[in-house]
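Good day; I would like, with your permission, to put a structural problem before you. A protein sequence and the structure tokens that stand for its backbone fold form the material at issue. Thank you for your consideration; the sequence and its tokens are set out here:
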Amino acid sequence: MAYKVLNNILLKDVSSSGLSSLKTDLLVLVINKETKANASFKDLNKISKNYLSKAISSHLKESGSSVLLPNIDGINARNILLVKGLNKKDPVHKWLSMYQSVAHKGNHIGSKDISVMPGSVMPNGKDEFWLIEMVSKTIESNVYIFSETKNKTVKKPSVKKLTVLTSGLSGSILNKAKKAAKKGYAIGEGVNTAKYLGDLPANHCTPRIIERKVKAMTKDFPKLKVKSFNEKDMQKMGMGSFLSVSRGSEEPARMMVIEYKGGKASEKPIALVGKGVTFDTGGVSIKPSPAMDEMKWDMCGAATVFGVMSTLARLDADVNVVGIMGCAENMCSSKATKPGDVVTSMSGQTIEILNTDAEGRLILADCLTYVEKYKPSYVIDMATLTGAVVIALGRHASGVMANDQYLADKIIESGEESGDRAWQLPLWDEHQSCTKTKYADLANIGGGREAGTIHAAAFLSKFTNNYKWAHIDIAATASYSTPVKAGTGRPVPLISELLLSKKLK
């Protein structure tokens, strides 16, 4: 069940054919000095009797601003969108924002296809292939509209085709450009897959429903191998920490393992572990009512794993990756785990559960222990783990903590490259004292409100002694809060970039 919106992405050379004859619902021209000097643009402007240049002078005052020009005589495009281009010094996330606006505009006016001439300007250090990939990724992931549970008010994406307009590409250069477009398309599809799972209401996205969707994905991508474990299986494996979360729910927990082997047989896999709490009431430590509906996005770590694995399979990537999705509901009932209860994790360590709303780390603890069997080269877990990370970093960056600096550095680097940014927080020996308790080997929360994000990572680190590990807290970035309330698909772009670029050696 991969979720793609566009039917295809094409590259079209307009160096000789010009733009006036191009049939498209929306022709997007990114305007800068190079664009104005372009012969195709000059011809288009001449046909419009300088209407384009006048619109540029009147409306495009700031970088990223745009103006929509419909139905110009002599030009086949139904609409032209002029966008004032960015500068080379502008950061990647501004470029993403510009093309996000293009995608939204295309849907808003009901365009079935979009043709984009991105121009020759790009951020410092980037090339035309990066630009093609970025445009493909951003358009695909932003024409997405959730419509699964709508009936009478249904609105679906209108845009089904993207054409990236190029000039003078041929031979091996053209092939490289096509690969860049394909990569961007596949990452965008992975983002949409993660968004879709996150946006589903909790009664439409239980652990068992996710299990069915994961198994169905193998029909599209036979290279993916899926294993699923029910509560009896997990009980046999000693996953008392994981199972403590689902005790209060009638909906049984599931752990899914997705294996992708695209690299050499001798190559150790990289492991991805995702928290998948399909709804989080907080359990006995119940959350306040306002915005509790947003707790359906507490499974976005697992959704990220799902999205990334579909991207890898779509591209037939030459890497070995194992993805683990730990899925459960955290509900309040007479059977629910109580504050002060002590459980035994798969690692053998006992845990005093001081707060049942700190449940994600209990799931991850056993998943991080289970993953050892794969002898991974690196392990990365992703989880909507703490509200504290929103306070620390706002909605702009995911929080990264790690026991290996090289791994942390490559994650940050991939975030900058993809525009899906992350920032490292410390994980020092001094932070480990937060896990101490009289009644068990570990407590699931530290004392007070200080360093909540770091204390959660300190707890997880107790289960990662045998491999190189990083934790990405995506509570701030995986979804938009009030008033937008929507999944973002992050950090699928970051993780995809990390794996596909082969940054980890």
